[in-house]
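A reminder from the course coordinator: this example appears on the midterm review sheet, so study it carefully.

Given structure:
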């Protein structure tokens, strides 16, 4: 007697419906928070009000902060030094009070604490202008980063971390430009920035792996990847331009590190944690760097900009970006579920 064999249904073949979500919640397979999240993903059109509210609150808070900064800048001469210091300090205390009142689990409380972080930087700048301490610019950003680190750790808010990372990048870059005498080459600083941003990218991915939900927004990954790519591309561009200016082939170890960082980014987000958008960013950066290298190489060899050089550049550009596009098309088909 023949019996019909049934194959188990995979998860991607089960339709995501309200009935399915309710049954999973009823039988205890979903928590209440998971049930709400699933409904939010299934019916996103019903959450436009919450989305619009978050956007408006964020934009409004940003405009208020910008208004405060420009207020002090515009009325700098007319304001008494006492009012400048006390006014900013009152703003910091008010923001901290608002953060404590609303709580750091709500967007309003997190934005209040972010505003306090920004005002700390404004206070340091105003203090330095009033008393003319003679401190280097990097010290302002270093102090800003140190003083606000505790609040950033408490906030568990991605925007606060993004602002803090920008401040750290500025402090490191300015320190290297103004103080250090270890290596008199600014390209080395970009290698350091690449490692700093890469470290935070690694910590972000590690946090997401261990379930830190506040690190899960996708824009955080893109923000950090752009920081790593920008820092890694700078020494390569610098080496290419230096070779053209000095009319000699210049092979620098910073260039090799920049190339290595690009390759590492491509490998991680192509095979370890596949992400097509990040792969696009890396391939686009490689294409642009290849284009610049090709242009400088042609101008270096020919030492003129004749019509044949222009035609060669156009053809090479088409070949470079066509190759990148074909590779991305093949990659997309492999990564497509």
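Designed residues:
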């Amino acid at each position: 007697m023949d019996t019909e064999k049934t194959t188990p249904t995979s998860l991607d073949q089960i339709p995501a419906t309200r009935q399915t979500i309710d049954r999973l919640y009823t039988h205890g397979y979903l928590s209440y928070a998971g049930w709400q999240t699933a409904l939010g993903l299934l019916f996103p059109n019903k959450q436009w009000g919450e989305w619009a509210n978050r956007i408006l609150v964020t934009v409004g808070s940003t405009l208020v902060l910008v208004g405060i900064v420009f207020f002090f800048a515009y009325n700098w001469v007319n304001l008494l030094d006492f009012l400048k210091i006390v006014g900013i300090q009152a703003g910091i205390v008010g923001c901290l009070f608002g953060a404590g009142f609303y709580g750091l689990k709500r967007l309003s409380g997190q934005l209040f604490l972010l505003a306090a972080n920004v005002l700390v930087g404004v206070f340091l700048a105003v203090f330095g202008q009033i008393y003319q301490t003679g401190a280097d610019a990097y010290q302002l950003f270093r102090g800003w980063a140190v003083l606000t680190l505790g609040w950033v750790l408490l906030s568990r808010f991605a925007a606060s971390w993004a602002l803090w990372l920008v401040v750290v990048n500025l402090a490191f870059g300015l320190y290297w430009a103004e103080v250090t005498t270890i290596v008199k080459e600014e390209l080395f600083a970009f290698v350091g920035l690449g490692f700093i941003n890469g470290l935070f990218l690694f910590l972000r991915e590690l946090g997401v792996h261990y379930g830190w939900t506040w690190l899960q927004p996708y824009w955080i990954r893109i923000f950090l990847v752009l920081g790593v790519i920008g820092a890694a591309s700078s020494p390569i561009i610098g080496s290419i331009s230096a070779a053209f200016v000095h009319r000699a082939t210049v092979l620098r170890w910073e260039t090799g590190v920049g190339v290595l960082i690009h390759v590492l980014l491509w490998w991680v987000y192509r095979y370890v944690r596949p992400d097509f958008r990040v792969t696009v960013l890396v391939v686009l950066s490689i294409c642009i760097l290849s284009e610049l290298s090709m242009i400088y190489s042609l101008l270096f060899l020919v030492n003129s900009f004749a019509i044949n050089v222009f035609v060669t550049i156009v053809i090479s550009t088409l070949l470079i970006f066509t190759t990148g596009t074909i590779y991305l098309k093949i990659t997309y088909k492999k990564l497509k579920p």
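The chain has a mean pLDDT of 78. The two ends are 39 Å apart (CA to CA).
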